[in-house]
Amino acid sequence: MRSLPYDIAFRARARRTQAWGLGLLTVAGLLWIWCAVGIFLPYTVADGRDDDECEARFGSEYLHNDRSDCVAERDWPEMVALLGGSIPFAVVGGVLYTSGSVSHRMAEHLAEVTRLDGARP
Fold this sequence. Notes:
By secondary structure, the protein is mainly α.
């Protein structure tokens, strides 16, 4: 039974890796939500004297019209940069989550195979 502490530590590491992956995937998801809000929802620009109502970037026919306050507040390059910034979080999070899940599943499989081999007549 000397392998039991090692097995417990291995499973704890696998769960910790899985949790880090889930955390990074959550960060990527929040960035995607932030980008979707910036693209699909109308917004207001306060310039000190009055508030300008601006259309959503996605539904606007004239993205670069004479209302420069609206264009400067939410422009496409910033939204695309936000999506681009979420890619590393999504990729690393997916890899870590998958690695942790596979490690934990393999530990369970090995424990089951060992148990079944010990139950042989």
